[in-house]
Write a structure and sequence with these properties.
The complex is a heterodimer of chains A (161) and B (380). Chain A has 161 residues and is mainly α. Chain A has helices spanning 73-82, 90-113, 120-123, 126-132, 134-160. In chain A, helix 1 packs antiparallel against helix 2 and helix 4 (126-132) crosses helix 5. The longest helix of chain A is centred in the last third of the chain and has 27 residues, at 134-160. Chain A is elongated, with a radius of gyration of 28 Å. Chain B has helices at 36-42, 91-94, 150-155, 159-169, 185-194, 209-219, 232-239, 260-268, 277-285, 307-313, 324-336, 355-363, and strands at residues 2-5, 8-10, 25-34, 59-66, 78-81, 84-85, 113-114, 131-134, 142-143, 177-181, 201-206, 222-225, 245-250, 286-294, 316-319, 346-351, 371-375. The chains are: A mainly alpha (161), B alpha/beta (380). The structure holds nicotinamide-adenine-dinucleotide and zinc ion (2 copies). The site of one zinc ion has 9 residues of chain B, from helix 2.
Chain lengths: 161, 380
């Protein structure tokens, strides 16, 4: 018989185990439950009414989940691709960040389609900057504008040549 | 409120949340806070933050409706709702790891479900709203004791337990020197809670003077501005007899300032999951054999931290999302006995309609803001 199949017969097995050596206490109350793995009583599953993207690192969906903002459009396609890779991979996280950025543009388009032009000034809370940080904010706006003009001038200047 | 993109939020009318699972409840929100964690979402740092999501994981309110299997909560109960969504039955919940529940987030396995914290944390709408769906209503939500101020209660949903757990994970022994990075609400609360474990010195580090001043008064600690130091690590070594602190606590997370390389690679180029500056300083200014406790939040892929020094110095790292439910009984007692004054952190109260202004105020650290409470105008 192979020893690992009857691991308790390995010479010295468990001899130095020290129950006091529990570096996770008190954040984790050691109950031994984690050796029971997945045989705990789960709540009944929440009915799935929208598309849920699930991590490839688990066998089945959790008993409850959020059903908000299901994936849609181009960003949704990218998110679906991202979720075909595990949380270990850059191929999971980088596409998600890209999808988030594309989603912002989709949001503006859908606003405009509904006849609503987003009020960037209000949504960004710039009123507060003007009220509490007028000087700093003016400086930031001026720097950004100056950089913008400089870039424009450089690019157009090159074209003219 | 809903998220529209980095630095853009607004209020909109959304459909009433529904009971989607027999253990759900619907809570009418009476107070909800903006957290430093929300800033990571607001700044577009958390992957899979979808446009149209509602943020908010710190809220208290009144139970409006309960699902058929809910037994402990009744309609009309005033509840505080821990930020983590926890089933109470999985192996992790049973071990008190309510911040690591395995049955509340199908979208990622590292993090459990959190209200209003992107699809990476389960895709739930959050509490910066008039009404919110609360899963596992018999597990997390806790009835607010009748003599407790709701302003105290709302800070028990995250800030107080997180600050407390930050100190608890530090394994502070009597006489220790504790250094806390970050003088936001979490760092200030961690500094205050550190005293419960008997240290002889508590030092807080930040670069925002009004916050350092606030921390000095609120948490009875020493407070220093890292922008006024040549080198924060050398400064801390020097003030601890050149050994380093016994315990260092990171209450900053991925949007740290103070190191150009970290800032560029982590926050501008996004080549790592935010800037690891505070964690780097914590590791490098703790003594050999010391403990580093992390509650500052970092993104999923990876960060550049001096892991070689962790090894060579024999450092123990402890970290987690706070296990709010586990800590509540003890913390409610500290508040009721007058040992802790959570609401003392609140500097601003803003109507929910002005959510965009409130986010800007907190994000840009304007008007000496420490903690903002949003108040929905819904009538019962
Ligand atoms: N683990 C949890 O359960 C949990 C819960 C809540 C919040 N958090 C996290 O805790 C962190 C702090 O939250 P907060 O609400 O206090 O946020 P905050 O943004 O108000 O505070 C962060 C503070 O850190 C300071 N800072 C920046 N760079 C620094 C540096 N290099 N050294 C020292 N200080 C520096 C900032 O000036 C700011 O005052 C966030 O990352 C948040 O996501 C974790
Ligand atoms: Zn929070
Ligand atoms: Zn659980």
């Amino acid at each position: 018989m192979k020893l690992h199949e009857n691991y308790k017969d390995i010479p010295g097995w468990g001899m130095d185990a020290d129950p006091e050596n529990e570096p996770t206490y008190p954040m984790k109350n050691y109950t031994g439950d984690d050796h029971h793995r997945s045989d705990y009583p789960r709540s009944a599953p929440q009915p799935k009414d929208v598309e849920i993207l699930m991590s490839t690192e688990r066998p089945k969906i959790s008993a409850v989940f959020g059903n908000t903002v299901p994936p849609s459009g181009l960003s949704g396609k990218i998110r679906r691709y991202a979720f075909s890779h595990s949380e270990d991979r850059y191929r999971h996280w980088l596409p998600l960040i890209l999808a988030d950025r594309i989603n912002v543009v989709e949001g503006i388009v859908s606003d405009i389609k509904k006849g609503h032009v987003p009020n960037m000034f209000a949504e960004r809370g710039w009123k507060m900057e003007i009220k509490h940080n007028a000087k700093g904010f003016a400086l930031k706006v001026a720097t950004t504008a100056a950089l913008g003009i400089a870039m424009y001038w450089l690019l157009c200047g090159k074209k003219r040549k | 409120m809903e998220y529209r993109g980095p630095y853009r939020v607004r209020t909109v009318e959304k459909p009433m949340p529904q009971i989607l699972h027999p253990e759900d409840a619907i809570v009418r929100v009476t107070r909800t806070c903006i957290c430093g964690s929300d800033l990571h979402l607001y700044h577009g740092m958390v992957p899979d933050t979808r446009v149209g999501s509602t943020f908010g994981h710190e809220f208290v309110g009144v139970v409006e409706e309960v699902g058929p299997l809910v037994q402990k909560l009744k309609v009309g109960d005033q509840v505080l709702v821990p930020f983590n969504i926890a089933c109470g039955k999985c192996n992790f919940c049973k071990q008190g790891l309510y911040g690591n529940c395995h049955e509340s987030n199908p979208m990622a396995t590292a993090v459990g479900g959190i209200f209003g914290y992107s699809h990476t944390a389960g895709g739930y709408d959050g509490g910066q709203a008039e009404y919110v769906r609360v899963p596992y209503a018999d597990v997390g939500p806790t009835v607010i004791p009748p003599d407790m101020d709701p302003d105290d209660a709302v800070l028990l949903t995250d800030v107080v337990p997180t600050g407390y757990q930050a100190a608890e994970m530090g394994g502070i022994k009597q006489g220790d020197t504790v250094v806390i990075f970050g003088a936001g609400p979490i760092g200030i609360m961690a500094a205050r809670c550190a005293w419960f474990f008997g240290p002889s010195r508590v030092i807080i580090i930040d670069h925002v003077d009004y916050r350092l001043e606030f921390a000095r008064n609120y948490a009875y600690c020493e407070a220093y501005n890292f922008k006024e130091m040549d080198d924060p690590v050398v400064f801390l070594k020097k003030t601890t007899d050149w050994y380093g602190a016994d315990v260092c606590i990171d209450c900053v997370g991925c949007e740290a300032e103070g190191n150009a390389l970290q800032t560029f690679s982590g926050r501008i180029a996004m080549l790592q999951a935010g800037a690891g500056t505070a964690l780097q300083w914590a590791i490098n200014s703790v003594k050999k054999g010391g403990i580093v406790s992390i509650v500052g939040v970092y993104g999923p892929p990876f960060n550049l931290i001096p892991i070689g020094n962790v090894l060579n110095k024999g450092i123990t790292i402890r970290a987690n999302q706070a296990s709010v439910k586990r800590l509540l009984p003890k913390l409610i007692d500290h508040v009721q006995q007058g040992r802790l004054n959570p609401k003392g952190l609140i500097t601003h109260k803003v109507p929910l309609e002005d959510v965009a202004d409130a986010y800007r105020l907190f994000s840009s650290k304007l008007d000496n803001c420490i903690k903002t409470v949003l108040i929905p105008s819904t009538k019962a």
